[in-house]
Structures are given as structure tokens and as C-alpha cells.
Amino acid sequence: MKLLKYIALASIGFSATSCKSFLKENPESIISEEQFYKTQTDAINAVNAVYFLLNSGGSTVQTPYNTLFNTGMNFAGDDEDPGPGATNPDVRSLAVLAHSSANLRIYELWQQHYAAIKKANVALEKIPTIEFDATLKNRLLGETKFLRALYYFNLVRLYGDVPLITSYQKYVNANDYAVAKSPSTAVYQQIEKDLTEAASVLPNTYASPDAGRATSGAAKALLAKVYLTKASFPLNLTQHYADVVKKAEEVLSPADGGTGAYGYDLFANYADVFLPATKNGKEHIFSAQFKSNSVGQGNNQNPRSILTAIPGLTGSYADMVRFYTVGADKFFSVYKLYQPTDKRKRVTFVTNFTSPSNGRKYALPIVNTAVPNDSTPFFNKTWDPNSLSPTNESAANVAIIRYAELLLIHAEAENELNGPTTKAYKSLNKVRNRAGLPNLAEGLSKDQFREALYLDRRLELVFEYQRWFDLIRQKDATGKSSFVANLHKVGKTNAADKHRLYPIPQSEIDNNPLLEQNTLWK
């Protein structure tokens, strides 16, 4: 695991910190900006500060990959709901698509991403002025560009047109910070530029203790995902499908039809994707890093997924599967979409917990006339067998992009470009075979292959902060967006086109006279 140092940069001054383990912040002094950015260590700290907002946490803080994407995004989709332990009214309103521009989670997503972008812009301006090893300097600048691209990629998918800020803002008056929205196409151009430049200078791998930092392969894989998003709804720039295939094959291994020399592959055991013992392994292209049993450094999603009142475990049951009606079954969920032989099912979910205190099993049965002995499934991908009460914070990383997703990205784009070719089947079947499923039936049409791939993508990546983004961009056999129809299927009958984008936070509009609300939210 990477042992990083972090600093928190403000517009005028900042707190310099150091740590002996990933994510820990210990303020040592308050110094002026002019006193900083003098040494190689200062440059490293500046970049580490950009990483910090991926995953920092604690009892009162949520950041994008440490529960905020769940409470502020996943609950709006079709796989999850807030559980009994999630009592925040902003979270619960979002889950039923009754949110407004005043929603706190929608504001936090905006604020957290722009705070990280500001840190990136600071690093990109200041690091070139510091004298130290040129190779390391270029690497640090590449890491920063990769992270800025990732943050903007999230913003443009969530909000559409957003302010594009690529320089360090250091102003005196509040009005100086007023920036109008840029078209999403311009934001995507900047994302592509950052990722292309990052890929050209980043290393293929890192030696310990730097595992977990952005690599050249990560930049290319994320760029393939960016191209796929541009080719999909709402932009529908289908010429980018060719770019997806080309870029993905630069990362895929020769055994999988690519030219990549990064050593990526699937774990034989699906569980190894998520267990802390195998983090940063061959399937992990880029992940948010966590450490267990240390307040503020652990994955706080873990206790939220555990049933309450289990001796020896701290669980709030704050997230749960979304139940909806299919036929006579009023407790259908994504859990029941898996085939019985699908190995992903028993890794992704558990239906009971064993108390470490008394050895008893605890479950939440369902009285379901359609399914005898039915029981509530709980999400399990953040489980850490070594996490302890009273926090049960997990050391399970959050995969931002992994090799299985890259294979699915490649298969989807190849199908859209050329129909279900041998290449498309090969990439999809590799993911299916690892799950214990047979090869997909031959001779499918493009539409049939697409639907099969969408299902496998959903089952492969459930609870990994991917589903909402997929709902936004995917289409049906007629070529129309399937966003509204998919949400209607699970009982969210108020879902409408406007929900595809979040409203711009009202507090941001109030503070920025140049910022306009998204059209369907006016």
C-alpha cells in the first residue's frame, strides 16, 4: 500500500502535514504559500493532496469514493436504496428522485470535486517552478493531470456543462471567482488532453511503497472509458467507438488481443478483486486506497452495509438493495438477476452475518409468498475480514477502473462499431467465464449482444459506483435512451429526462452570477 503524505491547500495559506500511513493527516505547522513549493518533498505533498479528496473520511466527512457516491448518486438508481439507518432527508429524497437544487449531497459532490480540481491547479502551476529531478517532476505533473481529468469526468457526467477551470485562482474579491459554464464538449476536450499528456509521462508500474498511484495504463484505460461515454448518451458522438477500441487495445494484454505491456489480467477468483489482502493486484488499474481500523483512513461504506445489532460488529444498515415487483415477487432485486451458477453472486452479496462475539448467524428474513425462505441480501464488496469494532472501517479499496471493466468497454465499443465480432465475444466471454458462466451464445444480433453485455456489466460492477453513469448513457434496441424506462421498471415512475443530470447547486448559483441552472431544472 502506498505510504503517502497529504496537505490541505487553501487559497491563501495551507496546513503542511505528514504521515506514516496512507491518508493520515497530522498538522505540524502553518506556513505561508511563499514559504512552500521549494523542494521535491513539497511537490510530492502537493500531488498527494489531490489524491486525498478521492477517499478521505471520518465520522462526519464523505468524499466521492468514500460513501459520497453511494449516498449522493447510487441511491438515485435502480440497484440500491437507503436502508433504515440512512435517515438524512437529502439522501432519502434523492433516492425517490424528489431532490432539488438545494440538496446537500448534490452540493457536496460539486464542492468536493472542485476542491480537488483547485488543488490540482495549484500543483500544476507551482511544481514546474521547483528545481528537482526532471523525471520525477514530469511524473508528478502526469499524476496531477490524470486526477484532474478524473474529477472533471465525474462532474461532466453528473452535471453536464460545468465551469472549466484549469489555472490556479488566487484572487481577492469574491466576484473574481465567478466563472460561466463551459460546454460539455469543451470539458471533454480538456479531459482528453490531460489524460493523453499523463499517459505519455507516467510509468507502467510502481515499486513499493508507491503502489496505487496513477500509471500510464490507468490514463489510457480511463481515456477509453471517456471515449465510450462521449459515444453514448447524451452526446452520442458515435465516431468515438473507434477511439475506444484503439485505446482499449493499447492496454489489453496480447493474450486478450491488445498490445499492452502493463501486466493486467483478471484474478482467477472474483473475490480477490475486493479483498484487502489482494489489493493493487493485476486486475486493479486504478483504485481509491484505504486502510482499516484507523479512523479517517478506512472505507466507511463497510459498516453501512452491515445489519444492525450484531454482537461484535458495528453496522448501521444504511444501504440496502432496492426491492421492486416482478410478477408475484414483491421483493425482486438485482440479487435475483444472477444465474445460480454465477460466482459473482456470493461474493457481491451475503444473506447473513456471523457474530465474532458469539458465533451465531444473523439475517433478515423476508415474508415472501413467491419465494419461500427468502432473505434480505446485503452488499459485501467492501467487507474486510480484519476490520474491528467500534468502527468496522474497511481496508477494501474502491476500484475506479479495473481490467474486467476495460474488457467490457472493449466488447461494447467493438459491437457498436462492427457488430458482435470475434473480438467482442472474446472480451465479454473472458469476464463471463471468470464468473463461472458459459460463453455467450453465438450468432446474436448487435442489439441482442448489447443487451447481454449491459446485463453482465451490471452484475460485474454492482456496488462499484458505476450503475448511475451507465443508466445515463445506455440505449435500447431502437437507439433511444433507456434511462427513464429502466428506472420505471423498478418502481420509480416519476423518473423523467431531467433526472439524467443533477441540478447545479443553488448555493453555487447564488454565489456566482455567471452560473446558470441546467435547462430542465429551471
TrEMBL record:
Transmembrane segments: none annotated. The keyword Signal applies. It is found in: Cell outer membrane. Residues 103-228 form the SusD-like N-terminal domain. It holds the Pfam family SusD-like_3. Residues 317-521 form the RagB/SusD domain. Keywords: Cell outer membrane, Membrane, Signal. Belongs to the SusD family. This is RagB/SusD family nutrient uptake outer membrane protein. It comes from Arcicella lustrica.
